[in-house]
Amino acid sequence: MDYKRFGSKIIARFDKGEEILESLTSLCEKEDIKLASLSAIGAISKATIGCFNVIEKKYYSKEYSGIFEIISLNGNISTMNGETYLHIHCSFADEEYQLSGGHLNAAVVSATCEMVIDLADGEIDREFSDEIGLNLCKFQQN
Fold it and tell me: 35, 48, 63, 78: which has the fewest C-beta neighbours closer than 10 Å?
């Protein structure tokens, strides 16, 4: 991975063989990123995506291997218990132009992945909601 900061934005390039979430977490720790939104495009060879069942309050995951173009990768960066927390969704197309997508659990770059990270001044922590079954943004009251 290589990247450059431009004011409140970071442009990053993830290289072949890198796992996107691992590399992004490392970047967040190195640059002390606590709050940001992000978007990316690129190509991946492996992905694990999830879909949350709201009735069961449980994620179901599916793994993919092959040749895929990232159509859209969007999400946000926050914190939970002082640690980097990534919430990212991804859609990607295979060689037959069939689209798959969901909550991104893992993805390995096959060629490159170009990401724009839009930094925000502040910090939002997350907290698990028993009612919903997810880690929700926790806003402190002034």
Answer: 63
